Amino acid sequence: MSRGLSLSIDLQLLFNNPKYSDVTIICAKSVKLHCYRAILAARSEVFDRLLFNGMKESFEQEIKFPEINAQAMKIILEFLYTGDFSNEDLSLKFLVDAYFAADFFQLLNLQDHIINKLEEILSNNSENSEEDILPELLTKAVRDEIPNSDPLADLLVKYITKIPLETIPYGSLSSPAFQFLLIYCAKEKISLANNQYTIFRYIALHAANEVEQEDSDDEFNVFMKTEACLPSLDKFLKKEHVITPKNINDLTSFRTKLSEKLTPMLDYVNIKLINGGILVEIIEPLEIVPTDLIIEAYRYKVKQEMTIREIDDFTWDINVCGPNLDISNDGYTVETPNGLISNERVRASQPIMNIGLYEWDIIIENPSLSDWVGICGEGEVTNFNSTDYYSEVWILGSAGQVSNNGLLIDYGSPPFWEGTKVRVHLNMGKRERKVAFSINGVKYPVVMHWDNIPAKVYPLVSLKYPGKFKIQILKKDSDGLI
């Protein structure tokens, strides 16, 4: 290309070209980059002070930046020369390094440019090829103090929340970075996992890893011994893990330190929502959670049981039902005929419209490949051609997704199998209504995106062959407990 047509392209010819250089920058690992003093000084006040201050740097042919790697420095210099930087070989790590180098050289516009480029890479990274490095980068971004607001840390933590918590290696997040993650999730009302026990377990093992790193006496094996007392939720439900008295006694030598590390982070776990069996069998015996939190959780569970409004009965409404569905004589069971390849819906005959907490179970007696459970409004929810078909339902599917208005959002719950019990938790508040679901006794978070639930709703299911569902209300026993 002929020169003179583009200033930025012409200036690119000067970049790292010994022919036009009068100073050499030496980066980490002694990598040399060739530059021109006048351009650096004109574009950066930091370079101007270094190169034209009358001190020794003004007369030397080399300037050393041993803490800045060559890739980051190339981004800095290319930006100084052309006002931009190339998109070739840009990794998240190099861009983050360049962000901090830009901070050193007081290049605010370049920092903004890097943030935009990082956002572009992360949002288009469908293969998640670099997500493993995000925790390490957040640790670098947060450093030793938790920032109130930082564009880089805010961006990185936003995408870390999309990574399943249990897949983040312990130790990859420093303590300040991990706390920053927890604070961000609390502020944005984001759940790091599908259940509170998984969050508690990760926090406890993170604390154990910290204790182990700080204690020079490796004989304790703090992380390994703590992990032996905290099985994954899947192992607990399948009863594949047994905690012995020896496992619990193994914590004795470091229990106090572990509790001290763990307790401040418990502000970001809702202990009250952890399964009661896990509280009794796993968490309480470890004696690493303050007693008042354990007691508060038990009280909450008793109070919830006592305040849930008892429903007289629920039966399926034969008048608001798909044309091919069969309802049992007692009204509790709905079944699909052989050959029904498309989903049909049925709602309950009794509406819910009073303020209070309501719960009922849907028993999956026979699953299909596409089952849905939830609630609906007053609209034509069984007529596929109606505008109400998608907008007036709030449902959880057997693939672990929730849906309203045709928008599918990953909920993280397991598939429906034969015998699966789906419990619907409906909070009919005066100003807003909220829904959560439990699968076989494990409660999942409230669906925060559903902020449009009306004041009058009905239980609803959607199924196809060979689906067969039974609706079941929760009866209280003679002591008043469910």
From TrEMBL:
PROSITE patterns named among the record's database cross-references: B302_SPRY (PS50188), BTB (PS50097)
GO CC aspect terms: cytoplasm
BTB domain segment(s): 21-89
Pfam families the UniProt entry points to: BTB (PF00651)
InterPro entries in the record: B30.2/SPRY, B30.2/SPRY_sf, BTB/POZ_dom, BTB_POZ_domain_cont_9, ConA-like_dom_sf, SKP1/BTB/POZ_sf
Residue ranges constituting the B30.2/SPRY domain according to the UniProt record: 293-480
Entry superkingdom: Eukaryota
Protein name: BTB domain-containing protein
Lineage, top ranks: Eukaryota, Fungi, Fungi incertae sedis, Mucoromycota, Glomeromycotina
